[in-house]
Amino acid sequence: MNNVPIISGKKWKDVQVVRFNQSFSISFHQQIEYMFEINENYLQLNESYLFSTIAKRIEKFSASHPEADIIRLGIGDVTLPLPPSVLQAMHNAVDEMGVKETFRGYGPEQGYAFLREKISEVDFRQRGIDISPGEIFVGDGSKSDTGNIGDILGEGNVVAITNPVYPVYLDTNIMRLGKSSQIVLLPCGEENGFLPEIPSHHLDVIYLCYPNNPTGTVMNREQLKQWVDYALENRSLILFDAAYEAFIRDNEIPRSIYEIEGAAACAIEFRSFSKNAGFTGLRCSYTVVPKVLTARSAEGSNISLNGLWNRRQSTKFNGTPYIVQKAAEAVYSPEGQQEVREMVSYYMRNAEMIREGLTEKGWTFFGGKDSPYIWLKCPGGMDSWTFFDRLLQECHIVGTPGVGFGSKGEGYFRLTAFNSHERTAEAVRRIKQWEY
Amino acid sequence: MNNVPIISGKKWKDVQVVRFNQSFSISFHQQIEYMFEINENYLQLNESYLFSTIAKRIEKFSASHPEADIIRLGIGDVTLPLPPSVLQAMHNAVDEMGVKETFRGYGPEQGYAFLREKISEVDFRQRGIDISPGEIFVGDGSKSDTGNIGDILGEGNVVAITNPVYPVYLDTNIMRLGKSSQIVLLPCGEENGFLPEIPSHHLDVIYLCYPNNPTGTVMNREQLKQWVDYALENRSLILFDAAYEAFIRDNEIPRSIYEIEGAAACAIEFRSFSKNAGFTGLRCSYTVVPKVLTARSAEGSNISLNGLWNRRQSTKFNGTPYIVQKAAEAVYSPEGQQEVREMVSYYMRNAEMIREGLTEKGWTFFGGKDSPYIWLKCPGGMDSWTFFDRLLQECHIVGTPGVGFGSKGEGYFRLTAFNSHERTAEAVRRIKQWEY
């Protein structure tokens, strides 16, 4: 029997030696005591992810009402097929994968240069923002990227998220830090226009998502500048989720946090191809980690977050599929840009229909102007889940209960603009006729 | 200014209040003190990932020797194009994505039922192993899956990996736990046939990879049974990486750990489509987490690891692309199975060529029989990196230095069977003629 060497030589667990072949001779109690441990933080999570809960309620309703024609304005999934230039790029890429000379195996974990260069050029440099290809990491979705970013952050941080919030920010932080950690909720309600106020406390890490999911609200340049200034002053890190930037129509609303001076020194930005180009089933995103963004290690060295994220991605990720990256590249062609603009316009016409319908109905709502999300106040003082159930049972419309995004979402409800014109119009018609 | 509520109410950081608008009035020293923290474990990692280091050395050599015809037998990347049935499935899937009626957006995070059912049937049930679709999680690669599995495990575990080892197991554990944690190395050398010995200590989590990367060795049924029995007795968790099972030719070698009685109660298995079906650039894998596999929480409840992994994947992953899952499904068709068998045979013919060449050369080596990897002992007592540099400079052949996989790999070198017959034959010819 060999002596097992230990890397650190420091913390060998003080347990009784259990020899193989003394098969099952140890007591049950001992077995429990020496069992491997799970990440107990998971036990502090809500039982299931919001959208799984909703899916189950729909399933149950459908099973007992198979005739019901349900309209889904709930989950933020797109419905238009992929645009022609994206399809053509994928067919070509599939052909390349079938020929020895053009077959592609492992690609760079950070993404292919052809895509990183296009992103840098079209999404940033053409808009006067200096983000280089080496600051862009292609990923398989913003859910993964915003979920995994915590890997490179320390456990001592005070982490701020808004309330209500996209549940992934909260859940992934509970998974990593537990509820007993320093997770801070920044309340967003009608009283502050659903925008978090600059706190008087020190915050280390701040998640911001604008245009916002779920409230559909946006931050103008001055409002975002206040957060950048706060972060620079406090040496905080802003995690800026710009997954919905394509829906911004008002030129006064920043599309990237890097439009704000100094943001490159304090912010990581997340972008997605899901909503603008319909990639929810294709899976492609990118994360911007500027090279000027540094932290200070415990021993006082400057540490590049670009380097840390690169190490994380190189070690725990093997790149987005080549064919998907070729699809994303096609989005940046002149035809692709035109097709994507048309898709966004299509969805924004839906948002307008919903806005018009709710206005006529006399309900209070927010968003839907520079965002595909409409955040409505449940009528008659209904709570979010009551409204969900009644809207499902009486109108056969699925939305998302606001309380699913946090306690400050109670009494609110999220509708999305991602269905078809026909279905959206039908949903609006049903809502208008609804006597609740 | 609102009071920021805290989830736990417990650990609010004791820092000076920094108010916005007192712009930059705090001292530099204070700024450092209150800066956000990074995951300092990353600073304990080697500077760069093994294969990035190799890539840089090749780049440097190529720059100064542009005429050199370099043969790559290093990284485990495949070279044959994707088989026809896989290509056809992808073209069909791309077409589906272009039509409203068949477009697919977000899929189930766990993978589509059509693929999970095929995997369950062909890879397990047809071989007499009872693994259900609900125990299978489709992922985007074994690097991600084996890297992310640590998310659901506790920080108090004694984690064992072999030495030498696939670097991802070690690096991801250092990222999560730091070097000062209980990471144990199980030495594998010529003295034990490169198979770890059953330890006399208690281990909580044990990574095993067979057929092994990098040594190309395999575990027979009796050897694997000893580990399963050890894990059952010690209530340990085995993380079994079977990425190379398709290369097993000897029927006495288990292709899945679940061929061993009791393994479902103590093991998670990782599988990949990368090497058998050439998916290194497509990205598809799966993880098996049996429903009978439970852990005990600190407060004494039984916790399903299937449930924990499901929660992890639902929260931090949005599924493998639909077109890639359709490609994987095609691998299970009769034509796909035949094509995949031919690809594996092709690569194994390369392994045979290398084995024959090295035998003739009189070098000592291991593996290459039930594995695409040949693990050779560097001749003349050379260390791994010296051999790497000389083989590159004098033969223009790239391999992987054994020491890159751990200290026990020093003096060894890994060659892979993934190049073409022609290039492999040429590499063997160069090695035979080499006077070192």
UniProtKB/TrEMBL annotation, chains A, B:
Keywords: Aminotransferase, Pyridoxal phosphate, Transferase
Modified residue annotations for N6-(pyridoxal phosphate)lysine: 275
EC number(s) stated in the UniProt entry for this protein: 2.6.1.83
Domain of life: Bacteria
Its job: Involved in the synthesis of meso-diaminopimelate (m-DAP or DL-DAP), required for both lysine and peptidoglycan biosynthesis. Catalyzes the direct conversion of tetrahydrodipicolinate to LL-diaminopimelate.
Protein family per UniProt: Belongs to the class-I pyridoxal-phosphate-dependent aminotransferase family. LL-diaminopimelate aminotransferase subfamily.
Subunit description: Homodimer.
Protein name per its UniProtKB record: LL-diaminopimelate aminotransferase
Organism of derivation: Proteiniphilum saccharofermentans
Lineage: Bacteria, Pseudomonadati, Bacteroidota, Bacteroidia, Bacteroidales
